[in-house]
Amino acid sequence: MNIKKKHAYLIIAHSDEYCLNHLLKCLDDSRNDIYLLIDTKSSLNISFQPCNSSLHFVERYDIRWGDLSLVKAELRLIETATANGRYSYYHLLSGQDLPIKTQDYIHDYFGSLPSGSNLIGFCSDNGLDKVFDERISYRLFLQEICVTMELGGEY
Q1: What is the per-residue pLDDT across 43-80, written as a single tens digit (0 to 9) for each?
Q2: What is the pLDDT of residue 38?
Q3: Which of 63, 87, 98, 127 could be joined to 8 by an S-S link, Cβ 3.0–4.6 Å?
């Protein structure tokens, strides 16, 4: 399969309209395609109009923090992006992230890596065991039911 020399930015957004529109402006580069999924509970107004990149809106999804729905939303973004072809790199961001480097720097950096490099890693021997344990040890089984009931809905 042919790999595009482009980067796919996969964004899940739920709030902070100003920050999201600024992020989209920062990513507006001919070497990027942007995929945006907005939480169904959000009333975000996207004022950004791309000049250089392609902006793809992915079907909205009901996302709950710490829930399987977040993983499903990420998979929906990845499936949509890969349906358009393979990219050199996929960047998963929230709508409240901002790059601290320019697009030239980012593309030069990733272009200098060996082909097929994967920058996802996990290492628990560096004193962060407690942080990892706190984030992965607990499963909140009734989270979706409790949030729905708090909002006055039925489950």
Answers
A1: 888 888 999 999 999 999 899 877 888 999 999 999 99
A2: 94
A3: 87
The verdict on residue 102 lying in a domain is yes
Mean pLDDT, residues 89-104 taken together: 95
Tell me the residue type at 33. D
- Two tokens, residue 131: 């942080």
Residue of 148, 11, 2 lying closest to 74 (CA atoms) = 11
Does residue 141 form part of some domain?
Answer: no
Element (H, E) at 104: helix 103-111
Task: Express the helix, strand and coil content of the chain in percent, nearest 5 each.
Answer: 35, 20, 45
Number of domains in the chain: 1
The one-letter amino acid code at 56 reads: H
One-letter amino acid identity for 127?
A: G
- pTM for this entry: 0.78
Q: Answer yes or no: are the C-beta atoms of 11 and 95 closer than 8 Å.
A: yes
pLDDT tens column, 77-94: 999 999 998 899 999 999
Structural domain containing residue 111: 7-119
Does any domain span residue 1? no
Q: Amino acid identity, residue 120?
A: I
